[in-house]
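dumping this here so i dont lose it
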């Protein structure tokens, strides 16, 4: 029998018998370092399932122990926090006598308790959850499992970001990549450059409100995530996607600001930082010095590097190499969108592979909209080079974070209709039309190792990261509707060792997730293809 867990665990054995979880059941902590995470587990079960557990002397026992987990291979890839001794493998055993959750580290125990949380919320009815007797030995396939969140095109305040962190944690995702800067806004304070937030943070796309995180708010978010074993990795997107910088400090920009109207309230910016000017580097150093200390858990800084429309290849490479050196000089490793592979990299750097598209067939596809005429050559020329990026990265010995547009861009429109008529208006409005719509089933019908051009073995992969870009998103409800129910599918690909997902089996597990989502007041697409509870 498959337990209703997402991601699917590595090994499960089920037995006869059950254990009943109900109000007043005790949680027993056998090492003091686990007290905090056990408290969080109790709080989460209360919200997800409406069941009140208590510290006690019998019931659910949590402990540090490595019994039985060494039969499972450690995760492949790289950790965003750079912690080489981390281990997330855990055991979970349910018998008619009680429940035991263990692992060699507190983080492993936390992952095990997360599975138990799901088992309780999926079984809960009227304050009681009857769990089947079972033994689970589980651990992740990949070490880096994340979501890239665009907080520029629409600004998501701290409360909404906390809700997203809660979603990541429930599905054992461990990286929140915050896309903090872009053409339409600058969302992080740099005290030595106050106009970045005073001027650059105003507005988003169209007439949407802007905003930024204060230093205190960011520290709180980073801690909230760390408490849930999620590392926040900051992205400062350079040298393209920097029009907000030029609005704040025009002297850093080109003499003439150039852009192409996309006809949908948004425009494509052709303005980039100039690697040949000293002011550029004084600026980059100021930004890195302000931003890096805000993210103490992250071993990486994401420098963007994507879509430098209108910039020469030579300047792009010169920029990436110097920016990367400044990051490394501050003790951090570099991650960037795949275009950075065109520069000389260090083998410890990481390249984020996103462009798995075949641009020529997209241009010829009559079902997809055609971009404005003056943009077409720029786009096609830029995108054609992309097919060499992953091979170049691998040749340099760097690993890839896989974020393929085809499978992991959550700003693709939803192909599944919603059973809720009120959601149909939002569904049809959301997502970028030129990607084509994708179903929830489509989102799990691939494999990170076997399914991508240029990749042939798991040791080329640092991890798996979904991305949500917010050009079409205007509210927290929109954001959640595009994240759910896709996010658990990304977690399935990042954590589970199953290389092929059987849709009927997966959708049965997915359907069981909805009581916890309802209790957490999360918005999700009521896909008619899933038999929600
Ligand atoms: C490409 S993905 C971008 C973003 C857009 C996104 C829309 C990447 C590195 N750059 O600037 O928001 O497409 O899906």
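and the seq i came up w/
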């Amino acid at each position: 029998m498959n337990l209703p867990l997402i991601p699917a665990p590595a090994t499960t054995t089920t037995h006869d018998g059950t254990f009943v979880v109900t109000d007043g059941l005790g949680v027993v902590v056998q090492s003091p370092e686990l007290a905090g995470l056990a408290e969080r587990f109790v709080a989460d079960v209360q919200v997800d399932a409406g069941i009140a557990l208590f510290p006690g002397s019998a019931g659910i026992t949590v402990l540090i122990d490595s019994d039985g987990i060494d039969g499972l291979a450690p995760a492949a890839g790289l950790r965003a926090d750079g912690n080489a001794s981390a281990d997330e493998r855990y055991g979970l055993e349910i018998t008619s006598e009680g429940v035991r959750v263990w692992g060699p580290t507190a983080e492993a125990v936390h992952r095990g308790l997360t599975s138990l949380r799901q088992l309780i919320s999926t079984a809960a009815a009227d304050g009681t959850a009857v769990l089947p007797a079972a033994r689970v030995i589980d651990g992740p396939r990949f070490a880096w499992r994340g979501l890239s969140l665009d907080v520029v095109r629409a600004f998501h305040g701290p409360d909404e970001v906390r809700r997203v962190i809660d979603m990541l944690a429930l599905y054992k995702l461990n990286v929140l990549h915050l896309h903090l800067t872009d053409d339409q806004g600058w969302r992080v304070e740099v005290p030595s450059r106050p106009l970045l937030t005073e001027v650059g943070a105003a507005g988003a796309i169209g007439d949407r409100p802007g905003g930024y995180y204060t230093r205190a708010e960011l520290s709180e978010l980073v801690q909230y995530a760390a408490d849930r074993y999620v590392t926040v990795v900051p992205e400062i997107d350079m040298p393209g996607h920097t029009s907000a910088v030029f609005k704040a400090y025009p002297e850093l920009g080109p003499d003439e600001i150039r852009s192409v109207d996309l006809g949908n309230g948004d425009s494509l910016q052709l303005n980039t930082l100039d690697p040949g000017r000293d002011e550029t580097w004084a600026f980059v150093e100021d930004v890195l010095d302000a931003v890096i200390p805000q993210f103490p858990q992250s071993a990486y800084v994401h420098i963007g590097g994507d879509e430098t429309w209108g910039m020469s290849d030579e300047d792009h490479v010169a920029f990436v190499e110097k920016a990367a050196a400044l990051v490394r000089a501050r003790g951090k490793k570099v991650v960037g969108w795949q275009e950075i592979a065109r520069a000389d990299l260090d083998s410890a750097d990481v390249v984020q592979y996103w462009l798995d598209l075949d641009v020529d067939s997209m241009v010829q596809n009559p079902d997809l909209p055609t971009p404005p005429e003056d943009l077409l050559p720029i786009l096609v020329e830029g995108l054609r080079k992309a097919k060499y990026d992953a091979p170049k990265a691998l040749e340099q010995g760097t690993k890839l974070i896989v974020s393929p547009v085809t499978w992991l861009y959550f700003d693709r429109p939803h192909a599944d209709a919603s059973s809720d008529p009120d959601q149909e208006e939002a569904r049809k409005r959301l997502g970028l039309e030129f990607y084509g719509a994708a179903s929830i089933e489509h989102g799990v019908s691939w494999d990170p190792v076997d399914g991508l051009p240029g990749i042939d073995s798991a040791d080329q992969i640092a991890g798996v990261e979904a991305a949500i870009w917010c050009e079409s998103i205007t509210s927290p409800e929109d954001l959640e509707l595009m994240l759910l129910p896709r996010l658990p599918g990304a977690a399935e690909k990042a954590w589970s060792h199953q290389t092929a997902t059987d849709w009927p089996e997966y959708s049965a597990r997915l359907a069981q997730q909805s009581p916890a989502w309802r209790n957490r007041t999360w918005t999700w697409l009521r896909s008619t293809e899933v038999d929600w509870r």
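The two ends are 19 Å apart (CA to CA).
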